[in-house]
Each structure stands twice: as structure tokens, then as C-alpha cells.
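WARN no homologs supplied; continuing
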Amino acid sequence: MSEFAELAPEPQLRSGDLLALPPVARMRWEVWSLAWPVILSFALDSVLGLAAMLMVGRLGADAVGAVGLATQILGAVRAGIAAVGTGTVALVARYIGGNDRDSAEEVLKQSVIFGVVVSTVIAIPVIVFAPELMEVFQVKGPMAVMGARYLQVVMLSEPFQGVFLMCASALRGAGDTRTPLWIGAIIDLLAILLNYMLIFGKFGAPALGVDGSAFATLIAIAFGGALFIWALSLEGMRLNFHWSRLLPDWQMGMRILRVGNPAAVEQLLIQFGFVAYVAFIASYGAKEVAAYFIGVRILAFSFLPGFGFSNASATLVGQGLGAGDAEFSRRAGWVSTRFAVVFMSAMGLLFVVFARQIAALFIDDSVVIDYTVMFMYALGAAQPLMAIDWTITGGLRGAGDSRFPLYASLAGFYGLRLALTIVIAHYRGPLVWIFWTLLADYIVRSSMKALRFRTGKWALVEV
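OK structure emitted
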């Protein structure tokens, strides 16, 4: 991939420069050049997640479950930040497509301000009520105690996470996917080192177990937020963060939130749905919930193309509409989707074939391994549908049409996955049936979103 990067270096868009949309004949190249840094960036994040899970896994099933449950809650409470991030990508892409760098940089500045405010407001009650939140999963004892402590420490990093995510979102909307890659790589390597030091007490550090993993995350994310601000102060960047007049512009802030709010509501409702979904799995036992989180961590690698091509779709669709070329946007969305389906299907198949061998790397409990393999089979089968869902969602959000993905996701998740799970759990059906409800979920999501993109109504949405 580094050779490809040398063949087609990214242009540095400066104030006053005009951005010409690439020719349609080069669409595949443009999609790939935007996607691969995001794929690699999320791959490094997944390596971090796997490394942390491998290390925590040496502490036992309770430790794995504690970190997994806390991470599930963390995903739910970050829905508010998702509103700012989604609005940032859509608006920056439109402004860059319309050759208005000054407005794009104002969106960057305001998204950082509002990202910090929103994340701080969210973090405070979560820190206070962390033990009560863990009770939602119906777990008690060491798993609940460790999970609550982990959540409280990691939530301290949320303001820095707000800076990190907003800067990355703005740069990706502007077509710069490489700066978030190199900054993310530094942070992930730092986090892996800190996890090793603080979990096991290496290099003179105290052995803190699960708490050590939480502190490692806090330190790494704080450093990452500072590093992003420094990088965006340098000359020659696609966007710059200006410290002058660093005051909130409520009109711009509300506009960012208005564009991103449906995505935030979607994320919030889906994450709360996941809390319920995991709670039903947890009702089967600690080993079952540990298997679920190990399986998710493993298959996170097969999700990587979805993240990358979703980003490419969002950026190119938004820039095409900003330049007044809806046909360019349409083709960008479909080309990105085809790429994602091929890559995610191939990776899902690979993980299904070697499911048992991979699961055995994480834990030596044969029962947990068996359950993990069951879950990996179900999630692996859903990969083509997930590819369509994620990439089309990226295109719709890049167009500012973030309301329809909300409806489709709720129909799939609540209408099928959660409803079927409730029935299965009520009659104490086999756990594997609950795992396979996700396939029905993604059939609905992917079908509805693909049909929406085909209609072209997204091109008429005002942002």
C-alpha cells in the first residue's frame, strides 16, 4: 500500500485553491486511496483491542466480561459525540467540494468545541452511576466491580476523545485520511505498551490488572487529543485548527448537531439495544458473555473494510454534492459498496474457517471457546450484509441524509434481532439461536438502505 501512496500523493488543498472532482474513470482508485488509510487505522485499533483482550484474558473470564461490558456501555454513551462527528464529516465534505476551505476550518473548530462539551456532559453521570449501570447486565460479584471501576477510569478520557474524534472526522471529510492514520498508529502502540506495563506490572510499574488496562486507555487517548491539535497547527495540512477567536459559534454548532442528530439517536438506541441484547446473553452465564465479547474482538478485523469504504463513500458523496455533481456521488457510493462486500466477505470466510484455532488464542476455557466459535459462525455469515449496511450508511450520511439510516437500523435491530432474542430467552432456547438473530437484523438493514440509495432522494437533502 505504501507503493500506491507514492504513485498518487494526496494534494494539499490550501486556502483559495479549487478542488476539482476526480474523473469518474478513476473512481475505483479514488475510493481505494481514501479507504486504505482508514482500513489500516482501524486495523491498528483492532490490534490494540485484541492485544488488550489477550492480556486481560490471562486474568480470567470475569476480567474479560468486565472489560467487555464496560466497553458496551462506553459505546452507548458515546452516541452524543457521534452527532458531532457525523455532522462534521457531512459539512466539511460539502464545503471542500464547494471550494470553501475557510468554512470547512470553522466547522473543524466548532466541532472540537462542541465535541468536548458534549463528551464532558455525558461523562459525568456515567462516572457517578457506573456501578448502577453495570447492574443492567444482571452481573454481580468481581465482574461487576471490575467493570464499574474500568468504566469510571476510561470515562475520564472522554473530553480528549472528543478532540480526537472531531479532528479525525473533519480531516476525513476533507479527504485527508492519512493524518488520522499516523496519529492513530502512535496512540495504539503507546496503548499496547501501557497495557502490558500496567496490567502485569512490567518495567517497574505496579500490576493493576483490569484497572491497568483502563489507565492505559486514559493516558493514550489524552495524548492523542493533544497530538491532533498540534498536527493541525502545522502549515500544509488539508485543514488547520485556529486558536484565534476560539469561542463557540452556537449557530454553526447547532447546524453540526442538526445534521448529525439522527445518527446520534441511531447510535444511542442501537447501543441501548445492544445493552439489552448482551443482558440476555449474560443471563445464560459468565462464560457465554465472555465468549460473545471475544468473538466480537476477533471478527472486528473483518469489519475493517466496512469502516474504510464507508468513510470513502461519505467523503466522495459529500464532495460530489458540494460540487453539484449528484451522479458522481451516486457512483462513488456504489463503487465503495462493491469493494466492501468483496473484502468483508473474504475476511469473514477466513475467520469462520479458522474460528476454533483463533478463539483458543484468547482463553484456555473449552466451554468459552465452544461458545465463541458459535458466535463467530453467525457473525461471519452476516459479513456481506454488514458491508452493504455500513457503506451505504456512510454515503447517506455524507449526503446529510442521516435520518433514514436511523429508521432502517431500528427496524432491523428492534423489529427482528431484539424481538427474536426476547422470545428465545423467554423459552430458554439454545444460545446459538440468539447469536443467529443478527443475520435477520442485517437482512432488513441492508435491504432498506440499499433501496433508499437507489432512489436518489438523498441528493435532495439540505444540510
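Residues 1-18 have pLDDT under 50 and may be disordered.
OK
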